[in-house]
Hints:
Helices cover 76% and strands 0% of the residues. It is mainly alpha-helical. Helix 8 packs antiparallel against helix 10 and helix 9 runs antiparallel to helix 10. It is rod-shaped and about 95 Å long.
Amino acid sequence: xxxxxxxxxxxxxxxxxxxxxxxxxxxxxxxxxxxxxxxxxxxxxxxxxxxxxxxxxxxxxxxxxxxxxxxxxxxxxxxxxxxxxxxxxxxxxxxxxxxxxxxxxxxxxxxxxxxxxxxxxxxxxxxxxxxxxxxxxxxxxxxxxxxxxxxxxxxxxxxxxxxxxxxxxxxxxxxxxxxxxxxxxxxxxxxxxxxxxxxxxxxxxxxxxxxxxxxxxxxxxxxxxxxxxxxxxxxxxxxxxxxxxxxxxxxxxxxxxxxxxxxxxxxxxxxxxxxxxxxxxxxxx
Length: 285
């Protein structure tokens, strides 16, 4: 029996393999596991609270039982809620910095608006190779989506079996698929920042209530009120209120800022995707 010769690879399979070997244009840096960030921030907060704010030199008599001499000692009097609030605040700060780095890499090397205009000019001139080269130079999420769509564009341009409507549908699907793969990396860790917006305020409110309870207990004591206990309770209430407001405010600003940047990137992707499909529809019968 004759030995069967190995079948030559189909052109479609070869093209698919070639696409998989293409360099990855999008290289979004970021922290994948936010839980590690929270743990590290908690350790840092506890160390600052115990060894920094709880340092004996911050209090009269050299011990934490004395009256605070400065702001660090006053914050220490806020109680055990303070390191929790510090953990939340540090987490917001670290994740905000992380999102800045990630979205900076997602934006690419050049200005996104100029990149969109240049790609649209290349499409108008039907210069697909120049547009693909521009994507490689730009890098980032927008360039990655455009590059993958242009690769599909060239495939559809060389395809003689599919109808025009089928080719247009394929291009639209490629834009949607490439966008869907990029978006999770852009919005990663932002839900945690959004959660801390409310959580920081609530924990600060909890500390405020606990401080006021201590103050009223000092006032309700028999005889003259204990001024030390009264001032401790007021300090705890005010310190926790300040930390809660600061955490919530910073988280709101950070979340809205980065959400707006992601929306701008999404708009740029949609704009170029529409231009690619429109160009193909206008230049092919």
